[in-house]
Each structure stands twice: as C-alpha cells, then as structure tokens.
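Much of our argument rests on the idea that a fold can be written as discrete symbols. The record that follows shows the chain in one-letter code together with its fold in token form.
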Amino acid sequence: MEKVYHPYHLVDPSPWPYVMGCAALLTTLGAVIYFHYSQLLMLILGLLSVGLCMFFWLRDVVREGTYQGYHTKATVHGLKLGFLLFIISEVLFFVSFFWAFFHSSLSPSIEIGVLWPPIGIDPLNPFSVPLLNTAILLSSGATVTWAHHSIVSGNKDEAIKGLTLTVILGLIFTALQAFEYIEAPFCIADSVYGSTFFVATGFHGFHVIVGTIFLFICLIRLSRSHFTRSHHFGFEAASWYWHFVDVVWLFLYVCIYWWGC
C-alpha cells in the first residue's frame, strides 16, 4: 500500500481526553459535596487530577510541536482557528454574565427596592483597588506585547524580561482581587447584586489565574529555547488569551464597578 504524505498531524491515540473528563467529573462532584457538606477531600482530589492531566497532556503537545516536528504550517493554522473559536466561546460565556447584570440593573424589580444598587448594598469604590487593578492589567498587556515583539525579533533576553513582568503583574492582580473580596462589605448571597458581582468578577479572576499559569509555562519554554522567530504559536495563544482577559476586565470595570455603583 502506497504511503500518503500530507501536512496535517494525525494525533496518536491518547488517554488524556478520557482522563481529563473523569477528572472534571470528580472535581464537579467534589464541589457539590463541598457546597452541601463542607467536605473538601474529593474536590482536592479532583483538582489534583485535573492539574496532573494538564501537565502530562501539555507535555505531549510540547513534545509533538517542539521535538518531533509535527506542527507544520497547516497544523498551526488549524490550531489558530481552534483557539480563536475557543476565545469566541469564552466571549459568549461572559456575555451571559453581563446580560444577567443589565437585566437586573436597568430595570430593578420591587424585590430589591426598585433601586440599583439594591437597598442595603454598599458598593466598592471604583477609584481605589479596582482602578489600580485596571492599571496593572493594562500594563501587563503592554509587557506581553513587548515579549511577543522580542520573540519575533529574535531577542530572547528581552522576551524573558517582558514575560516575567507579565507573570508578576498577573500575580499582583490576583492578590489585590483576593484582598478586595476579603474586605468587600457584601457577599455573594446579598441579593442579585452580590450574585452578579462575584460570579462575573470571580470567573474573570479564574481566567487571570489560568492565563498566568499559561504565561508561566511559556516563560519556562522560552528559557529553554522552545520558541523561534517563526514558530511560537504556544506563546501566541497565551498572549491572545491574555489580551482577551484585558478586554473583559475593561468591560467589567466600566459596567459593574463604575456604572453599577
């Protein structure tokens, strides 16, 4: 039988999609048990399973793209389209949160006093920690762009500096948001305001954590010379994701922190 050559990467059979599905199910069950019975064991086991699966799955992808040469131009094109569709799905995910927020805030119901913010809610000052976090996240968008241009220019040292600053700024943002949550004068159970506020900003905070881990992995790969001037889609995907996080935060800040107060 004649062997057919093509530019696409036909992935070898892998256990990781099935294992990740089981780990996600374990995490969900653990979260439900924690919410109802305050028992953390299954949730911790689920999160550890997800983390280990991510590590080994990403290890295989890095091996295929960096050492085995499977990520041809056609394959990278497909990866880019797939990642763009993923970001579009994330945009729609956040649209649902904004929809819930504006549905409740533009026409407040009688149950919350026909007023927004509802009676009894003391909103956060948008010009304190939220404004500082806005400056930090926008600065991180500039540093990740600096790192990207440095990679394209072949300047590894500058790219490492820019990416290191981005990771540090992401950690500072997360720490400040945690401080903000601790000091907030309301909680997620305080009417629809608390629900929409903590769900929208909390999921954004989760995306910041994921993006920081993504960029940190890229930093390790960059230090090991995995990226070249023309072949660095792993970093491109991380930078796209980070810019998406930046844009979502601007909408959150303007709508929920500033206008919503």
